[in-house]
Specification:
Structural class: mainly alpha
Number of domains: 3
CATH class of the largest domain: Mainly Alpha
Radius of gyration: 23 Å
Order of helices and strands: HHHHHHHHHHHHHHEHHEE
Distance between the termini: 54 Å
Bound molecules: iron/sulfur cluster
CATH superfamily of the largest domain: Helix-hairpin-Helix base-excision DNA repair enzymes (C-terminal)
Oligomer: single chain
């Protein structure tokens, strides 16, 4: 780790805030300090690109403009409104968070990290984002972009493996937050990681932090090794998982309201056969655990020695 002196901290702060002032995108969630709106944007952004999120964010707020309106909505309407964003359980958790704010906090979002992280569906990242972006607190928190930027600036290249632990990266991130600038600083870190210090092709040659960056001398050569391997690994993970089938089941139920396993199978898997029923049951059980579907007929767990009962599956009421 390069020494993180007070002088270096000041240079990084000044350089990054100046970069943000000149380069940031005008995004709708940067015009609000409403914790509900911040929460919605952060949950949508967790797995989805900014450009795709913008129209969904605006449509969602037209449908559910307040935390009360989301808390009192039918879960099936909430899941339907999420349609197209993927990772549907995010919608269910968003509603659980809204309901907890109404039931446990009289409809007013708590502002402390300790209380925020106790809300259902709110992890350390989202709690930090609400504290910084709604309540303008001088907090540090980690997402992929922030982690990468801090690591490169302070510890050196993160490729092929990181040199610092999560705890060390967070401690460095906490030291970097300028007092009174928690909102701008964290927005700047996220934006810098998304636009300038990207995972695969950081724009080091035009980076205002070259002189302060511990990774700058080494990263140009390391990065050349990365793209093909990373791409193949990600594709294999996606196609090998059940995520795409979970999405298809929910999409099908949006169209048909309810269906038996035997009806669902061919609609979500083109080569579906009877032998796939236990697998489909597993997919549907996972969706049930996440509150995305209900199973209307026999609730008993599947016995692998028996035929799978032809359960009726539906979106929650
Ligand atoms: Fe990131 Fe390169 Fe800038 Fe370092 S010099 S902060 S690695 S873009």
């Amino acid at each position: 780790m390069n020494e993180l002196s007070d002088a270096k901290i000041e240079e990084i702060r000044a350089g990054l805030l100046a970069w943000f002032a000149a380069n940031h995108r005008d995004l709708p969630w940067r015009h609000t300090r409403d914790p509900y709106r911040v929460l919605v944007s952060e949950v949508m952004l967790q797995q989805t690109q900014v450009d795709r999120v913008i129209p969904y964010y605006e449509r969602w707020l037209a449908l559910f403009p307040t935390v009360e309106s989301l808390a009192t909505a039918a879960t099936s309407d909430v899941i339907t409104a999420w349609s197209g964003l993927g990772y549907n359980r995010r919608a269910v958790y968003l509603q659980k968070t809204a309901r907890a704010v109404i039931e446990n906090h009289r409809g007013v979002f708590p502002s402390s990290l300790e209380e925020l992280v106790n809300l259902p569906g709110v992890g350390p990242y989202t709690a930090g984002a609400i504290a910084a972006f709604a309540f303008e607190q001088d907090v540090a928190f980690m997402d992929t972009n922030i982690r990468r930027v801090v690591h490169r600036l302070v510890f050196g290249s993160d490729i092929p493996t990181r040199q610092a632990t999560e705890r060390e990266i967070l401690a460095a991130a906490e030291r970097l937050v300028p007092e009174g600038f928690g909102w701008a600083w964290n927005q700047a870190m996220i934006e810098f990681g998304a636009l300038q210090c990207t995972q695969r092709r950081p724009a080091c040659v035009v980076c205002p932090l070259q002189r302060q960056c511990a990774a700058f001398p080494e990263i140009q050569t390391d990065i050349a090794e990365l793209p093909v391997g990373v791409r193949l690994k990600n594709e294999a993970t996606f196609h090998g998982s059940n995520r795409q089938f979970r999405g298809r089941v929910v999409e099908e139920l949006r169209r048909s309201t309810s269906a038996t396993l035997a009806e669902l199978g061919p609609k979500v898997k083109h080569d579906f056969a009877e032998r796939d029923l236990p697998w489909l049951y597993g997919v549907v059980s996972g969706l049930k655990r996440d509150g995305l579907v209900t199973i209307k007929e026999p609730a008993a767990e599947y016995d692998p020695d028996s035929p799978v009962p032809d359960l009726v599956v539906a979106l929650p009421d």
